[in-house]
Amino acid sequence: MMLTAATTDLFAFDAPALKELAATQPGPFFAYDLGAARERYRRLRALLPARVRLAYAVKSNPGLPLVETFAGEGAWFDCASAGEVSAVLAAGGTGTSMVFAGPAKSERDLQAALFAGARVQVDGIEDVARLHALHTGERPLPVSVRVNPAQGVSEAASIIGGGGPSAFGVDEEALEDFVRQAARHDRVQITGLQVFAASNELDAGRLLANHRTTLGIGRRLQELLGRELDLLDLGGGLGVRYEVDRPSLDVRALGAGLGRVLEENPWFTGELLLEPGRWLSAPTGVYCAHVVRTKVSRGERFVMLEGGINHLLRPLLTGQSFPTLALRPGVGVLGRETALTTLAGPLCTSLDRVGTGDLPVDLQPGDLVVFGQAGAYASTQAMTHFLSHPAPEQVWVDAG
Ligand SMILES: Cc1ncc(COP(=O)(O)O)c(C=O)c1O
Hints:
The chain has about 400 residues and is of the alpha/beta class. It folds into 2 domains: about 5-30 and about 280-395, Lyase, Ornithine Decarboxylase, Chain A, domain 1 (Beta Barrel), CATH 2.40.37; about 35-280, Alpha-Beta Barrel (TIM Barrel). It is about 30% helix and about 25% strand. The chain is built from 11 helices and 18 strands. It has helices spanning about 15-25, 35-45, 65-70, 80-90, 105-115, 125-135, 175-180, 205-225, 250-265, 280, 315-320, and strands at about 30-35, 50-55, 75-80, 100, 120, 140-150, 170, 190-195, 230-235, 270-275, 285-295, 300-305, 325-330, 330-335, 340-345, 355-360, 370, 395. Pyridoxal-5'-phosphate binds near residues 78, 160 and 236.
């Protein structure tokens, strides 16, 4: 792929910046542009109704400089482990601007969330019972319940999807029973709802359909509880494109649509939360690995890189490649003549494939393959320790 105006949201850096970065990094590395992160946060913030709060989903990229950047913008945070709680606190975020989720929260996780003052999202009656036992405050602990909706749309239902069986949340059909059981635990009070039924969704209309469903569930929950909800959490799922020929998510339409959803639901007077991870962090990062060798095996072209699924696992998990381009250090982005290529890594397993795509035919050892959209679900989602290669460098750039 060549770098053009149409690819600026795919690769965080332009060709001169990539050349400069490559010159300083002898091994595989991730590089992130904090200025781009700030700009994306501000753009999304400006397009959403003022009542909607943004909680950055830390799991998409828990890098401290990035979390600090979002904390500096006044973001809330979505955490899912004691480690993520610590990262947010270390980055200057506060526990009272934090939601805490997870389908199997350990004792340590719950303690960390409670100690920080985060809003815990319970995934079932067991969570309620455990919090009832742990909470020592005088007033009941306000918590949100995660509901697994009966209907939901998602591009990648294999990751997070609505409509089917799920490890997450209380099934919508079981909500009445859950509310009845939760009422027996008087040290805990259900005052909020979280629904998250989409992943990497590029269609604003489909996201809004999910949000309408959530408001509908919220209304029913409020009736079942007999008290007003103070927080409705619409989850994440705002998508980014991994292919240049796909349209980007129309965040302006999403913002305007959310405004309409709020107008349609005057009964809800609490706070509305969106928890985007990928949309905020993916376009801020690239992953770069040098070519070690190339080969053709029975008609299939392979390029073997210094880094593989030990640095980038998502293509193997989802079957979706990151956008790639090739760079010759000292020269620049490589030419237009391309051929279908399988990118393989250094690990001793045929599972070690990090993508398939059109790459320049003249790629040679020492060239760099640059993976765009690698600021999310990349560095910390990989099998870093497998085969004991060094962890990739993390380079943080803040031109601002
Ligand atoms: C509870 C919760 N919130 C938010 C997110 C972020 O999702 P995304 O990165 O798709 O916006 C996730 C991702 O798994 C999640 O589990």
